[in-house]
Amino acid sequence: MQDNLVIVESPAKAKTIEKFLGKDYKVMSSYGHIRDLKKKEISIDPDTLEPFYEIPEEKKKVVSELRTAAKKAGKVWLASDEDREGEAISWHLCEVLGLDEEKTNRIVFHEITKSAILEAIETPRHIDMNLVNAQQARRVLDRLVGFRLSPVLWRKVKPALSAGRVQSVAVRLIVEREREIQAFQSESFYRVSAVFTLPQTQGASEVKAELPVRFRSHEEAIAFLERCKDATFTVEAVTKKPLHRTPAPPFTTSTLQQEASRKLGFTVSQTMMVAQHLYENGHITYMRTDSVNLSKLCIADSKEEIFKLYGEKYSKPRNYKTHAKGAQEAHEAIRPTYMSNTEIEGNSQERRLYDLIWKRTAASQMADALIEKTTVNIRIGFAEAPISDTLANKSNQGEAADYFVATGEVITFDGFLKAYHESTDDENEMEDVTHILPVMKEGDRLERSAITATERFTTGPIRYTEASLVHKMEELGIGRPSTYAPTISTIQQREYVQKGDKKGVERTFTIDTLKGNKITTATKKDVVGKEKGKLLPSDVGIVVNDFLLEYFPDIMDYGFTANVEKQFDRIAEGKAKWTAMIKSFYKDFEPVVERTMNIRAEHKAGERELGLHPTTGKPVSVKIGRYGPIVQIGSADDKDKPQFAQMPAGKSMETITLEEALELFKLPRTVGEFEGSPVVIGTGRFGPYVQHNKKYVSLPKTDDPLSVTLDRAIELIKEKREQEEKRHLQQFDEDPKMEVMSGRYGPYICYDGKNYRMPKAMHAKAGQLTFEECMQVVTAADSKKK
DNA sequence: CAGTGAGCGAGCTTCCGCTTGACTT
Fold this sequence. Notes:
The structure is a single chain. Helix 3 crosses helix 5, helix 8 crosses helix 11 and helix 9 crosses helix 11. Helices cover 35% and strands 24% of the residues. The protein contains 21 helices and 28 strands. A hairpin with a 2-residue loop joins strand 22 and strand 23. Strands 7, 8, 9, 10, 11, 12, 14 and 15 form an 8-stranded antiparallel sheet that branches. A 4-stranded parallel sheet has the order 2-1-5-6, sandwiched between helices. Strands 17-18-19-20 form a 4-stranded antiparallel sheet. The radius of gyration is 34 Å and the shape is globular. By secondary structure, it is of the alpha+beta class. The protein binds one DNA strand through strand 3, helix 3, helix 5, helix 13 and strand 22.
């Protein structure tokens, strides 16, 4: 008889635990929170600020199952996670299941091992109401911010927008990064490198060296090369320094997302989906965590595995401490459940992600890598004194340019590098591959082979990727492991930011080479600042950001979350009352909401006047319209209706010029007639199009809507007709509304404008179906719907 | 799929954190 009911948050966890606990225990899952504020209303009393909770529709089934089980059980154990949210889940369960304190036990465990769970069962406690209240404060604050701020945006910017403690700050990061990039002025400088040979030794013995200082101008660089013509190069000092590198800690949600993005090219949500699979199949521990902690079991397992695979000297058991801001550490780090499984069954994505997790975990338990770094200073013996003080002998940093430096790195013991190598976001400068220097000693004379001065450009900040944004958010303590991926999706769904590519700028640069006694100058071309798959702010994102920043600077502050977290902590410790905290926040916040809401709308957020129309004298302006950014000629109070044009792709409200704006009104234009009806070129929501006889054909990107000819337009119309033709497999005399079509997912039936899926068995016969057969599918589907 | 928008104004949109499904158009 199962006298005990244990409730955990995750069903996969429930399954594992049930095995450990044996017959007397039934383990069920709550599937996260079971109760929340109402979905469509603010659900907070405006006077008392008391929250009103309800069980959402999709949770009713789970709750009723839990209720039945709880009634039958002699004892209920609440084993949700040991953090703010977990404690609240247990409290809500108590309330909803009508559990009494006598029968209820709150237990927690940090790792899912038999001993940890049995130990937890031995030491039950009661629900910590302080922790629950900290969660209520968190929940109510987020609801107030989200549901009071969003409507302000609907009125002042555009309907259906949203604002929130986390998402608005995430957008701010992206907008500000973009502005930094725009403001960045690239400067050129000259880097000098040299190749020497060692005449004393036999065979090939090249030495590559760099000048430790850089020149700001071409003249300086040339002057330096000139002086090198008759110079001597002598080894001045050889120093050897041992370095050691330590492995990165095991994965958390955020670091897993970053590495999977860099190494496997996964998006943030893709990583989470694949990880979820691995978790459900028992391959890895829980994937939403901020902890770098590993269980004793895993550390012991890793040690054994590393002994076996690499040998004893590669093993170094370590324990990591979490430093992330606001970390709650309810779980372990993300790691393989069994280190002895070096690989698993699954699809290629699963296998690759697992491999990454295995290697990272193993490396974290391995020895440091030892590196010997050799630095050789090569003194330049100039034949004559410098021509002038400012040129030739000094670099822009004011340091003497009178020696080269050659460095060599040799890995003397690879340690953890044998398993895993962490990537970085810095794509520009690839670290030189480890190179070995020939043996040199003080006083050795080197022969100059070539010295080159290469023009380089300082690079500005780089745009965020999904993963690097997560990294930044974690650093600021904004968002939680369970919300990183959804937040990234939200800000893209709201069209505040888009993922896209940025074309680089082509730059010409010079390379001056001194070889023999001649200096040759060459120019080359290079593309600078090219980026792929980066987060770019949209006009709406920029306008919303600037608007919120102006009226709600406190909430947009990067420290806002960290600040409220401190207050939540005080509530959790019982040192502050949650209602008092919320009241004090609301007292300052609500009046600003009211005031902002009632500002007269003579100037919409983000509106900007570009100038006056050259012939009519009407004002030309840009603003956010009902469907996004638009250009407008004239104003609403004018007796003529204003004219509108959609902002074209690639142009933005901040930078569009009057001339560019006026171009847009040259569309729609009629290019001629075809089959008795006009052919019109226009541009709409989905880009430029050709319109003819109520039908639309999108204009390919290669065609310019302003110069497309009638002939080209007709060609496109005919192409489209041909394609349409191919899509229609069958039509029927019985009823012209019935058609068999060929689509992306195979043949389907279209009746009266609605699409119907046909059974797989009919696919082969598509093309020779009878009207009756088709009608059957339609009526069957229609009756099923009802 | 849809190529709009300036007002007679319906009714709707929205947060962050816990957790998994049921869907293929």
